[in-house]
Amino acid sequence: MKLYGLLTAVLLVLLISSCEKDVLTQLPVERTDLSDIFNPKDKEGTLIEEYLAGVYAQLPTGFNRIGNNLLDAGTDDALSGNISVTAVDKFKTGQWGPSDLPENPWVACYSAIRRANILLANIGSSGIPDLRKDAIRFQARALRSIFYFELVKRWGGVPLLGDKVFGLEDDLQLARNSRAECVDYILSECEFLKDKLPATLTAGELGRISKGTIFALKSRLLLYEASPLYNPSNDLLKWQAAAKAADDLIKLNSYSLETNLSTLFTTRSNKEFILAYQQADNTTIESLNEPPGYKRGGQGQTNPTQNLVDAFPMANGKGIDEPGSGYSAADPYKNRDPRFYLTIFHNGYSWLGTPVETFTGGKNNTRIGIGTGTKTGYYMRKFMTTSGSATGFSNATHNFPIFRYAEILLNYAEAQNEQLAAPDASVYKAVNDIRKRAGITVLLTAGSLSKEQMRTMIRNERRIELAFEEHRFWDIRRWKIAETVLNGTLKGMKITMNPDKTLSYDPNMVVQTVTFDAARMYLYPVPYLEIQKNSALVQNQGWN
Question: What is the DSSP letter of 124?
Answer without folding.
Answer: G
